[in-house]
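Example 9 (inverse folding). The structure is encoded as follows.
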């Protein structure tokens, strides 16, 4: 019998050996992280990183986040600042990415960093991913495991829907955060390039310094530009009530889950809403709705990250 999901694998010792073998030989593997699923390859290898750009159809100007197991591993490639070390101690491993200055003699492949003199560095928390990182001698270049511009996957089946059988997908359950990591630029001052579940006020508190949210960032986070996170159907924001022939995404107790109503969190919990956001967009797309309307989501804390993704998806 032809099992359609036969390339989705739970990590046991046999699969672990296979995954490490593939990564050691410049191959790609889809791996779970606490934020979203990623498409991983050796960040030091041109061959591996080139494959990532190809399979995702990702523009080469868009640098990829590099995932490390320990601080010591990262120290080979980037300079640490006082602010970075504080944030690392407080939040890592966890859903935060730091833009740091690259060392001249770093082995990172130029494609990984898109030729920039900075690197996006992350220390992920997911147990399965950490088991793999511990066993390899290089960091993993790992963008979200979706075609460029599409919604990021939060479970193994979402990845399958994007890439089918082209790669092995390691199943680590549903991503608990559900949206991508907060990206904080520490190369000059401190600014948020991509909001996430770790908020700017939390970061500010830990560092004891003011942070700025760069609204009109240009090349600094090219992947954040236009048409990202698109489910491929028109989205209308700040809608007050359900519209005809439209899926209605809601928040809070006013409109409960129902036919055509997709509530992100009836308890008005923004973290739950973040966790459900991509899953809901993907579910709605699958049901073949022609449009999506979205209720206003409070623009505080994690709500800032949710609204950021919704605005991009609506473009
Ligand atoms: O949660 C996450 O961060 C997920 C999981 C898989 O770790 N990864 C992820 O990667 O979202 P990706 O490639 O989809 O997003 C990386 C973002 C892009 O917006 C990219 O432009 C930005 O980080 N970035 C990477 N290197 C950068 C750099 N040196 N300077 C500024 N932005 C950078
Ligand atoms: Mg992405």
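The amino acid assigned to each position is listed next.
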């Amino acid at each position: 019998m032809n099992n359609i999901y036969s390339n989705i694998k739970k990590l046991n010792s046999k699969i672990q050996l296979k995954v490490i073998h593939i990564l050691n030989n410049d191959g790609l593997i889809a791996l779970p992280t606490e934020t979203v699923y990623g498409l991983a390859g050796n960040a030091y290898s041109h061959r591996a990183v080139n494959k990532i750009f190809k399979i995702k159809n990702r523009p080469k100007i868009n640098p990829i986040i590099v995932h490390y197991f320990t601080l010591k591993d990262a120290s080979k490639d980037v300079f640490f600042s006082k602010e970075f070390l504080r944030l690392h101690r407080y939040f890592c491993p966890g859903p935060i990415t730091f833009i740091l200055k690259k060392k001249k003699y770093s082995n990172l492949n130029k494609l990984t960093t898109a030729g920039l003199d900075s690197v996006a560095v992350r220390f992920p928390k997911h147990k399965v991913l950490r088991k793999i990182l511990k066993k390899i001698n290089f960091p993993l270049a790992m963008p979200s495991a979706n075609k460029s511009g599409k919604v990021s996957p939060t479970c193994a089946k979402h990845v399958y829907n994007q890439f089918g059988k082209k790669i092995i997908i390691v199943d680590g359950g549903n991503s608990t955060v559900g949206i991508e990591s907060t990206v904080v630029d520490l190369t000059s001052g401190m600014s948020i390039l991509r909001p996430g579940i770790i908020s700017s006020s939390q970061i500010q508190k830990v560092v004891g310094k003011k942070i700025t949210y760069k609204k009109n960032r240009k090349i600094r986070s090219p992947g954040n530009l236009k048409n990202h996170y698109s489910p491929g159907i028109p989205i209308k924001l700040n809608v007050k009530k359900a519209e005809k022939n439209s899926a209605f995404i809601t928040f809070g107790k006013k409109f409960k889950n129902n036919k055509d109503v997709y509530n992100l969190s009836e308890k008005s919990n923004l973290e739950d809403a973040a966790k459900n956001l991509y899953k809901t967009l993907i579910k709605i797309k699958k049901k073949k709705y022609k449009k999506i309307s979205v209720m206003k989501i409070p623009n505080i804390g994690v709500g800032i990250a949710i609204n950021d993704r919704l605005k991009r998806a609506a473009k």
